[in-house]
Amino acid sequence: MKIEKNYKLLLLLTCAAIFFVNLDSLPVNIMEARNFITAREMLHDGNWLLTTINGEPRYQKPPLPTWLTAFSAAIFGIKSVWALRLPAAIMTLFLVLFSYKLAKKLTSEKLYAFISSLIMATSFYIVASARDGQWDIYTHGFMVVCIYLLYLFFTEETHKYRNALLAGLLFGCSFLSKGPVSMYGLLLPFLIAFGIVYKYRNFKSRWLPLFAFLAVAFIVSAWWHWYTLTFDPAAAEITKKETTNWISYEIKPFYYYWSFFTQSGVWTIPAFIALLYPYLKNRVFNKKAYLFTFLWTMLSVILLSLIPEKKARYLLPVMIPMALNTGFYIEYLFRRFKELKDKKETIPVYFNFGLIAFIGIIFPIGGYIFLKDGLAGNWVWFVLLSLVLFIIAIFMFRNLFRKNIAAVFYLTIAFIVMVIWFGLPLSAAITNNAEYKPFSELQTFAKEQHLKIYEFSDMTPELIWDYGEKMKILKVGENVTIPEENQFGVMVSENNHENFDNAFSNFKRERIARYDMNPKGTDSRTHKDRLYRDLFIVTKK
Known about the structure:
62% of the residues lie in helices and 7% in strands. The chain is α+β, with helices and mostly antiparallel strands. Strand 4 (475-476) and strand 5 form a beta hairpin. Helix 1 runs parallel beside helix 5 (110-122), helix 4 runs antiparallel to helix 5 (110-122) and helix 7 (136-155) packs antiparallel against helix 8. It is globular and about 85 Å long. The model has no long low-confidence stretch (mean pLDDT 91).
């Protein structure tokens, strides 16, 4: 088959290979656990609108991603991590496909759209978000579809009301996923960049459909927030605290995000070069579209930098226009690399792709040295990964010497796919905690002993998720609740032993076991106190 006639199919297959394979390989993290607990309580307790986590109100984030997670869990099983992460993977697939459509509309060039979409699909933060049941990918995925529809709305004279109304609906879905985050970090810089480069033409004919867009966007965005504020007084305080976090929590300097291009992973060097506007502007095939993606990327970074609260994962919206921007540089290399004589232009290319190939060559030895203590039972995955990475690396070097950058580019995509297929199952090789004991075993113990289990003070989402049901917290502030049962279990963190002893000094206390969900043992620097508890059986005298 001719590759240029099957770009969409190839992109779909590549996304499926990256986003859907081995979805359940990595352990559930803290952000996922919060989402999954809320989804579980939707299904078990019917808390679909007044959402909860461990029985307490959970209004910090809107509910749409959790609804989608709960629907998937209802179909495939609440204990299936693959099912719980599936909606995020599907959302990322839509994000990449509509980015392809947007890139094609911008340039009328299918190859460029294909290249930039593959870069997006394999950028580190995009891959991580696709395989992680958190909120960010939903809000930006819905917004990318909204942006595509708005682009049609502003550039075409047909279907104005259809595009405006659908864009309003998708805007609302984005807002119902994580509030105004994507509106600020992705849509606003898009609108500014579009206005600078393409101008807003024939605006008089668009006023009424634009008003319809705003009305639909507002209604869909606001109704859940109105509902919680109306029917639960706690919602106002939670909303106020979440808003305050933007200016008082995780404060970082303005320049914190300015290494943003490194978050694209294997595309770090090409992404940086593509941002050198004076160098690339006369080399790209479409100057206007390149200026647009450049401004969209930089404006997104600047706007995010203005917010005092900063976290590395908040850079996710930047990865979208930056992939479109990087696509112009890679497309230029496709056309011109064989003709380039200037070492200043060729050395970064050889270094970037040569480094990837070098990793493939040395992985069989380096991987063994790093993973040897955990390879028992994982040898098949290790051998397969070593073999395919070595073969891909050989072909990458061969095509680099021949200056066949197109082949090198596609081999880089294959490299990433193979890491996901054969490398992610090797994550089990780094779990070498001899005292590993999950909270799911605690529930089995509790049922066998007919024992009610409580958490003394600190709610750790990963532990509550693994336990499988709500666990009441006994110490809130300075107040300690004494359970009604004559005998019950209490989970106590290391730093709360003294407080626990003081609170239950008049009761018999017997330490039974330690439940430790750290992947590495206590001798590792990564061993976290928050991921283990001591189980005490408390008996009233």
